[in-house]
Design goal:
With 453 residues, the chain is of the alpha/beta class. The chain has three domains: 3-161, Beta Polymerase, domain 2; 165-343, NAD(P)-binding Rossmann-like Domain (Rossmann fold, 3-Layer(aba) Sandwich); 374-450, no CATH class. Helix content is 55%, strand content 13%. The chain has a six-stranded parallel beta sheet with strand order 7-6-5-8-9-10. Strands 2-3-1-4 form a four-stranded antiparallel beta sheet, with helices on both faces. Helix 15 runs antiparallel to helix 16 and helix 16 (405-433) runs antiparallel to helix 17. The radius of gyration is 29 Å and the shape is elongated.
Amino acid sequence: MSVVVVGANHRTASLDLLERMVVPVDRLPKLLHDLDGGEDVSEVVVLATCNRTEVYLVAERFHGAYSQVRDFFGDLTFLPPDLFAENLYVHYDEHAVRHLFQVAAGLDSAVPGEHEILGQVRTAWDTARAEGTSRRSMNLLFRHALEVGKRARTETRIAHHVTSISQAAVIMAGEHFANVDLALEPGSSESAEPAAKCAGSRAASGLAGRRAVVVGAGAMARGMASFLAAADVSELVIANRTADRAQHLAASLAEESSLAAIRGVALDDLSTELRGADVLLTATSAIEAVVSVDQVRSALTDRTGPLLVVDVGMPRDVDPAVAALDGVDVLDMQTVAALTEANLAARHAETDAVRHIVDEELLRFAAVVSAREAAPVVTSLREQAESVRQAEFARFAARLEGLDDEQREAVEALTRGMIAKLLHGPTVRLKDAAGSTRGDRLAESARDLFDLS
């Protein structure tokens, strides 16, 4: 099995480029089959999240497979390869496996240890399995990756404190208001809180009593709304294209929290709701902006204070032109990621422990692959050798009739020993190389040379 991953994430590509690389859900099945149909690719899984788009594949030939994935990104972005190729990272064999394990463990996320990525890895794998593009090798790899992710979150504190992009967005909003309030206090420059101050408490104090609007009704929007309710906002409004979904989410949150002032409205009512709001948070799966500059400009009329916008949609939910409006502060996914990286020292302290788990699981995965890949070839080789040995004994049966039991056993032991010594070297090499491109070549050569089934 030669595993290759080609992709881009929030560390290698700009927000504008990542937006172009978003894979529409309705196009994913066709894209999977297009990739899987190439002569140099035998299996494929596409992992597309708000922070990354990655193609995992089993490659027959590396350069041919890479060219195919590069063309895939070209078709996706409508850009020539020379405008994005330098933003792509490429890993193969053990490095590709390590990368996926780190992704599943949350080491490669904007928020270390975030929970969403594990579900996204599973969804990517489930989709590929449903389409038939993830088979024996990818199934083995992704099943193990999910085990790594679960182990990392169970055995370390990588998932404690800030648990997701949703929570990070709310914390960033709370810290923004806390900093604004602090700056307004007399002598604030001398009484500023230390950087190590708990981010969660600052977020709660900054959001308490604020009016918040959330656009979207999916898992990430629900997460943000739930964290806002826990931060003691005075009122929470859920806006969605489908008002029924917004109202259903609002009713569900009202049952789960102590906040009574939760309402669901249609997205058409957004301008009206924003007039009295302090913060707008957005997280939808729309492929284009759902909050226009005109809607926000209209909401700014007769306002008494600034509006904070936190947009973690990918592509962005809010028209980028909104950032140029007076009285509006905008935090997008890139900003949230940067601020999160700077403030999550507690989680970063756990990364060494998680990397140790990844290292252990890499060894375990290699052993599993070795057993699954090499064992059938070795077994077939030894069975064929034993079959030849027994056939030769049968052919010389008449000439061996004069041997007593002790002599016959000596001949048996001699022939078995010769076969064992002859097959020892090939067996060791097949097992040692299993799971690599060289191992695939050796196994295929053994099958061809000895006509193994």
